[in-house]
Design goal:
The complex is a heterodimer of chains A (656) and B (270).
Chain A: H1 11-21, E1 26-32, E2 35-40, H2 41-57, E3 65-69, H3 74-85, E4 89-93, H4 99-108, E5 113-116, H5 119-127, E6 137-140, E7 154-156, H6 157-170, H7 172-181, E8 187-192, E9 202-206, H8 207-220, E10 228-230, H9 238-251, E11 254-257, H10 264-271, E12 275-277, H11 280-295, H12 299-321, H13 327-348, E13 355-358, H14 365-373, E14 378-382, E15 392-393, E16 412-415, E17 420-424, E18 431-432, H15 436-442, E19 449-457, E20 463-468, E21 473-474, E22 484-485, H16 487-495, E23 500-506, E24 513-519, H17 521-530, H18 538-542, H19 545-563, E25 573-578, H20 598-604, H21 606-614, E26 618-626, E27 632-643, H22 650-655
Parallel strand pairs in A: 1-11, 3-4, 3-5, 5-6, 6-7, 10-11, 12-13, 13-14, 24-25
Antiparallel strand pairs in A: 1-2, 8-9, 9-18, 14-15, 16-17, 17-19, 19-20, 21-22, 23-24, 25-27, 26-27
Helix pairs in contact in A: 1-2, 1-3, 2-3, 2-6, 4-5, 6-7, 8-9, 12-13, 12-14
Chain B: E1 18-29, E2 32-43, E3 47-51, H1 58-65, E4 73-78, E5 81-83, H2 88-93, E6 96-99, H3 111-117, H4 127-132, H5 136-154, H6 170-183, E7 188-192, H7 200-216, E8 220-224, H8 228-234, E9 237-242, E10 245-250, H9 252-256, H10 259-266
Parallel strand pairs in B: 3-8, 3-9, 6-7, 7-8
Antiparallel strand pairs in B: 1-2, 1-4, 4-5, 9-10
Chain lengths: 656, 270
């Protein structure tokens, strides 16, 4: 990031700049018919200009919206830029959305033009045509299967491009004038939030906001034209939009589009990205694949893997952070790098990764440390659609498993008394489209954005998100009265152990924290098998003394972790029990997306909650369960209640 | 696909004249009469099914068409040219490709290499040139690779391009076999039970690919199949064999109503 980009306040202007400064450098690659095809910045700009001229001829005007439905493809991104050239706003939609879900955005923004990747997407748009009378032009990229479609709205991408090239020949200056008219405060994109509750909201992001945030993050990580990114997540998701459109436009780096969703792993190995993003579930799936393949490996390889992974766990993270490590350990790690970590990074396609981010949900510390220990610079960040992603990033050398890092340049953080995080940043969204009420609810007069997330800034200045504000409570009585109680934070910490499937923490307005725990049948079953522990079924296994001890160790480890955190030391888990049945969506205990319905569980298992707090050693419970065929039955059990060790807070220990 | 085949007007390749004519073909192995006096024709761009109970002579018929067996009697005319003692190599040269009832792929080779073998007949470079990867061999290989990649894209098997065939599930192996046959750019494609042993989803996929091949490349397809639903849905005309004799021939509707066919399938009280 050493280029002078002053005066280039919109993406189209930046694109024309790259076409001038680095016309031959790769801008975007796509694997087509088994071979990586490259678009240079020059080609990218040329195609974009032709498309823009064509769209203008087709009647797309400044301020209009245009939908794009499809996977990551060079043509999709060229179209996005073309739309921006005219001062219109691209609205990428999730390609796996069903037709009915696409109707709302199109009606909401009175969309007239749309780009569809293939027959599948065209079919969806045609299906909702009766509800969306404004939609007059549908362009398609892949013509396969569309030969017999006679709808007047349809036009192929090639035809559009040809139209544009002719228009451009007739009047090349008109387009330049349109591009010059663009301003930083213009809308650059509208991204619809998934909307788990109520209707989706169109988040309007500005040219200036996106460019400013992209530059701030690129400077922090010193991204440049030699970096390479694999674009494999939906373009309608803000993160992919940033990594594959906004950031390449400010740095000139190259993005690569995989052949299909199934080939991402091998495409990644071929490309060797230097800059990578993955949500925790993707990282988890990769690790599982590695573990499974290691179990099938020869005895020698397994022994080597075990030994060197232990070395990596103890010193790998420290080496990556640049902390001092003894000579012997250094040599051992070097040997491990040669024999295990290097080949492993290669298999994962991460040999060249310089910066990798994860975000979106809490990541298990073991998972996080695994990637860091084998030398992959995995870091966490915090952001959302409304903030143009970059709010907090962990800088190199200051990476922690449970924070999101300090604020990026230009971001101000503040907390309400309820600990809700407020953000002020140049990257904040302009508004929710046509929804001033929703906008006013989250964005106040002073320009603070109310995130709805509860958290605090720790002693090192790192942001730590603990829960949603509406779930956070306080302990009500006893020595820890007033201490923060963040149930989801505690439950997540418990769930990071493979033996714990679900957890429900109680503590709001009470004198201490107690928890229900659901063991993970598969993991605990395996564990029992290895110990020759016979059991007859779930209920039997859950009631075993040995399993109780196993879970107690997990709980105590969580307590030890909490003790190190002055804000949360008071919310250590005093007592717990292991439920005799799995929490299930059919019984109304979980939502369909597998989130615990805390209040419902507390009511249903009231006698158990009372037993946790009245000091009883065991409790009897009888509940109704619903079988998969719809019948119901009663299950009863006597559950043992166990105490967990409580650790003295770290600060107190130091004083003692 | 319940509405049956597309109306003729919507098809890219209108069904044309006779491309393959089988005239009074008889084939016997010693005393066993596999085929006797079978005659039927296949028109250009159509999907033609051969059905019949077990042992009716369907596979033998296919083997006669692509020159594995030589009939004792009768003639076979491909595009008006009569041939009798053709071997399968010549048949391939004349534009006939096929897949097999029990998959006949090179199990240890990757999907890509297997499909590449389908191009074998189109390679002109000499042995020496190929060994040295020089001149014509190099140009040719690039060209063939492109053709193969198009087939791979068409049949949506990009994700297994580099996977050894033996590691693939059965349904995918069948698709790879189809890919190899397609790579030869055949005029006439013979499919021997393309859907045998597949689950419902795999069958649906296969049906779609067969129709796509027929629609996109205009390839004439002759297929043997046991699944009646599939046959009735995707074929233009059906010929029915029983004990080596033809007992029915016509559109799926005609064959469905043919008493001899119903008797052959359900058995008849004698």
């Amino acid at each position: 990031m050493s280029e002078d980009l002053t005066g280039l306040d919109t993406f189209p202007k930046l694109l024309m700049h790259h076409a001038k400064v680095r016309p031959e450098r790769p801008a975007i690659r796509e694997k087509d018919l088994g071979i990586w095809q490259t678009w240079s910045w020059g080609r990218f700009a040329e195609e974009t200009r032709a498309l823009a001229a064509a769209l203008a001829a087709q009647g797309l005007k400044r301020g209009d919206h245009m939908a794009l439905v499809g996977d990551n493809r060079p043509r999709l991104y060229a179209m996005m830029c073309a739309i921006q050239c005219l001062g219109a706003v691209p609205v990428p939609l999730y390609q796996d959305a069903v037709a009915a879900e696409m109707a709302f955005p199109i009606q909401n923004a009175l969309i007239t033009h749309a780009l569809a990747e293939d027959q599948e997407q065209v079919d969806k748009l045609l299906e909702i045509l009766p509800q969306c009378p404004t939609l007059a032009h549908i362009y398609f990229d892949d013509a396969r299967g569309l030969r017999n479609y006679a709808q007047p709205q349809l036009m192929s991408y090639e035809k559009l491009l040809e139209l544009g090239r002719d228009a451009l020949k007739r009047d090349p200056a008109a387009l330049d004038a349109e591009i010059a008219k663009g301003r930083g405060e213009d809308a650059a994109a509208m991204l619809f939030t998934s909307g788990t509750t109520g209707v989706p909201k169109g988040v309007v992001l500005t040219q200036h906001g996106l460019i400013d945030r992209s530059i701030a993050a690129a400077e922090l990580e010193s991204l440049g034209e030699s970096d390479v990114v694999l674009a494999y997540l939906p373009p309608a998701w803000v993160g992919q939009f940033i990594f594959s459109l906004a950031q390449p436009m400010v740095t000139g780096y190259c993005i690569c589009c995989p052949e299909s969703a199934e080939t991402v792993m091998s495409d990644m190995r071929e490309i060797g990205p230097t800059y990578y993003f993955a949500p925790p579930r993707v990282l988890e799936a990769l690790l599982t694949q590695v573990s499974i393949r290691m179990e099938d490996a020869s005895r020698l390889k397994r022994a080597m893997y075990r030994y060197f992974m232990a070395v990596a766990r103890s010193v790998g993270g420290a080496l990556l952070d640049g902390r001092p490590v003894g000579l012997l350990d250094r040599l051992l790690y070097r040997a491990g790098d040669l024999l295990v970590y290097g080949p492993l990074r290669n298999v994962l396609g991460m040999s060249r990764v310089r910066i990798a981010y994860t975000a979106g949900e809490a990541i298990g510390p073991d998972l996080f440390r695994f990637y860091r220990s084998i030398g992959i610079n995995l870091k966490q960040l915090y952001g959302s659609t409304e903030t143009s992603v970059f709010v907090c990033i962990q800088p190199d050398g200051q990476v922690k498993a449970d924070t999101a890092g300090p604020p990026v340049k230009g971001v101000e953080l503040r907390f309400t008394p309820e600990r809700e995080l407020l953000i002020r940043s140049p990257g904040l969204f302009k508004e929710y489209y046509k929804n001033p009420q929703a906008t006013a609810e989250v964005k106040d007069a002073q320009g603070w954005f109310h995130t709805g997330d509860a958290g605090y800034v720790d002693a090192d200045g790192h942001l730590k998100i603990i829960d949603r504000v509406k779930d956070v409570g306080k302990l009500g009585a006893g020595p820890n009265a007033g201490t923060l109680f963040a149930p989801k934070y505690l439950e997540n910490k418990l769930k990071f152990f493979p033996y714990v499937k679900e957890a429900v923490a109680f503590g709001h307005e009470r004198d201490k924290v107690c928890a229900f725990i659901n063991m993970d049948m598969e993991a605990v079953g395996n564990w029992a098998e290895k110990r020759n522990l016979a059991y007859s079924g779930y209920v039997d296994l859950a009631s075993r003394e040995e399993v109780g001890e196993l879970i107690r160790e997990c709980v105590e480890q969580v307590n030890a972790d909490l003790a190190a955190d002055p804000e949360l030391a008071g919310s250590q888990i005093h007592r717990f029990l292991i439920l005799h049945k799995e929490l299930d969506a059919d019984d109304g205990e979980l939502t369909r997306t597998r989130k615990v319905r805390r209040r419902h569980v507390a009511e249903k298992y009231l006698p158990l909650v009372e037993a946790l707090y009245n000091g009883a050693k065991s409790a009897h419970i009888e509940v109704q369960v619903r079988y998969e065929d719809g019948r119901t039955g009663m299950v009863s059990a006597d559950l043992a209640i166990r105490d967990a060790r409580i650790f003295a807070p770290a600060a107190a220990k130091r004083a003692a | 696909m319940t509405e049956g085949r597309l109306q003729a007007a919507e098809r890219a390749h209108r069904i044309g004249g006779v491309i393959l004519a089988v005239e009074s073909v008889s084939l016997s192995f010693g005393g066993v009469k596999a085929l006797s006096e079978v005659s039927f024709d296949v028109r250009e761009h159509e999907v033609r099914a051969i059905i019949g109970p077990n042992g009716a002579g369907k596979s033998s018929m296919l083997n006669v068409i692509n020159g594995v067996y030589h009939p004792q009697k009768g003639t076979i005319r491909l595009q008006g040219r009569e041939f009798n003692d053709m071997d399968s190599h010549e048949a391939a040269k004349m534009g006939i490709a096929r897949t097999f009832q029990n998959i006949a792929l090179f199990k240890g080779m990757t999907v890509l290499d297997n499909v590449m073998t389908g191009r074998n007949l189109k390679m002109r470079a000499s042995f020496l040139e190929q060994a040295l990867w020089y001149g014509r061999a190099r140009r040719e290989e690039l060209e063939h690779r492109r053709a193969v990649e198009e087939v791979i894209d068409f049949l949506e098997i990009q994700h297994i391009r580099k996977t050894p065939v033996a590691r693939l599930p059965y349904g995918l192996q069948k698709r790879v076999e189809l890919a190899r046959a397609l790579a030869a750019e055949p005029k006439l494609l013979l499919l021997d039970e393309p859907m045998a042993g597949m689950n419902l989803e795999e069958k649906q996929d296969m049906c779609r690919f067969i129709l796509d091949v027929n629609d996109h490349y205009g390839t004439t397809i002759v297929l043997i199949e046991h699944d009646m639903g599939v046959v009735m849905d995707i074929s233009d005309r059906v010929v029915v064999l029983d004990y080596g004799r033809k007992i029915g021939d016509g559109t799926p509707e005609e064959v469905r109503g043919n008493q001899a066919v119903i008797d052959a399938y359900l058995g008849v009280a004698r």
